[in-house]
Amino acid sequence: MLPRLGAADEHQEIREAVRSLCRAFPDEYFRQIDEQRAYPQAFVDALMAGGWLSAMIPEEYGGTGLGLTAASVIMEEINRSGANSAAVHGQMYNMGTLLRNGSRAQKERYLPEIAAGRLRIQSMAVTEPTSGTDTTQIRTSAVKKDGRYVVNGQKVWTSRVRHSDLMVLLARTTPLRELARKSDGMSVFIVDLRQAVGKGLTVRPIANMVNHETNELFFDNLEIPQENLIGEEGKGFRYLLDGLNAERTLIAAECIGDGYWFIERARRYASERIVFDRPIGQNQGVQFPIAEAYIELEAANLMRFQACALFDAEQPCGAQANMAKYLAAKASWEAANVCLQTHGGFGFATEYDIERKFRETRLYQVAPISTNLIFSYVAEHLLGLPRSF
Ligand SMILES: Cc1cc2nc3c(=O)[nH]c(=O)nc-3n(C[C@H](O)[C@H](O)[C@H](O)COP(=O)(O)OP(=O)(O)OC[C@H]3O[C@@H](n4cnc5c(N)ncnc54)[C@H](O)[C@@H]3O)c2cc1C
Fold first, then answer.
1. Ligand 1 atom having least distance to the Cα of 206
2. Interval between CA 372 and ligand 1 midpoint (Å)
3. CATH node for 6-115
4. How far apart are CA 97 and CA 220, in angstroms?
5. Stretch 276-289: mean pLDDT
6. Which of 126, 127, 140, 203 to mutate to test the pocket of ligand 1 (most atoms within 8 A of CB)?
7. How confident is the model at residue 1 (pLDDT cuts 50, 70, 90)?
8. CB 250 within 8 A of CB 90
9. Is pLDDT of 158 > 80?
10. Any ligand 1 atom below 6 A from CB of 370
11. Domain boundaries defined on the chain
């Protein structure tokens, strides 16, 4: 067992409880799910039933109201157990826009059901094929007509749609050419997937490197009731930005969990594998990279807890959240590399699970925000360098 440093011990009870739940879903379970390109339904059901994904929902709406630090510990422990939070993290944070910007009636209608796990809000549709990272260029439109919004357009990489009841949708309600500011004119909606799929919304799965349930979406005159607009029309982009700090910090925690998993596996294998009549970990050429990856992971973890603490204290935390995501994604990827290298050829064998986790943790260099865009944020917003776009 790796030493546990710093603030993490405050959450020992949560850690123990999540670990205990995860023990019922060992490596073989996730290996099989990965091989079959299936969805870990039983695992997700267990997390929902235990209320673990309602940590960000206040108690008045039926959640546990534990806050971001605790939520991040839950995500970390899931990944640290060998599982992948990507199957569930939408349920933890996609309701944020509703909570911050929704009406009282919307919150009362949805949040208790989400907290109880009876309503899944796993999906958020922002990215489009032609806009990519530049969200201000999205083209999917929602036009108000006879008390409804009619949606047309296309999204890409919308995850977990096939395992969700609700989806948060960002769509253009004012054409770009009519706007003074390109970040205006977009609005956020709740789409009830149970009514939408097949009736204006077509879902096409994207085969991908990880076992990630992600899709292309095609909107063809999909009708959404007007009451499903969240907050004010035209302010959707800003509403989404407000939620990014929580999302980035939670993703950082998932990476930290992955990193500990890789380092623990590397440490164990390096101690047990005998070549040249001694454990491979006795060679400094093997042990130093593991130590280095561990140091970098611990450093990233400090930034993650700093971002969490500021967020929970309702202080600005954009810089820390972005830097935590960058550092943790980098540290987990380096730990993955070291772990694979330590295992030699066996790192490539499916039964060791290293190659699966290696693929899974690689995603976080790209999504939900790519490394370059974090550099851009830090360069322009923290260091005051000229804007590049
Ligand atoms: C498995 C998976 C799941 C996803 N799930 C979701 C989801 O549920 N909902 C959703 O809305 N989206 C989702 N995404 C989309 C994800 O957020 C985007 O892939 C990501 O934001 C990058 O956008 P892009 O792929 O269009 O890359 P592009 O914008 O085309 O960028 C390509 C590369 O160029 C770089 N680049 C672009 N512009 C600049 C610049 N100005 N300066 C420097 N570098 C630049 C980027 O950093 C990137 O490395 C998912 C993606 C994946 C792969």
1. 1
2. 10
3. 1.10.540.10
4. 25
5. 98
6. 127
7. confident
8. no
9. yes
10. yes
11. 6-115, 123-234, 238-382
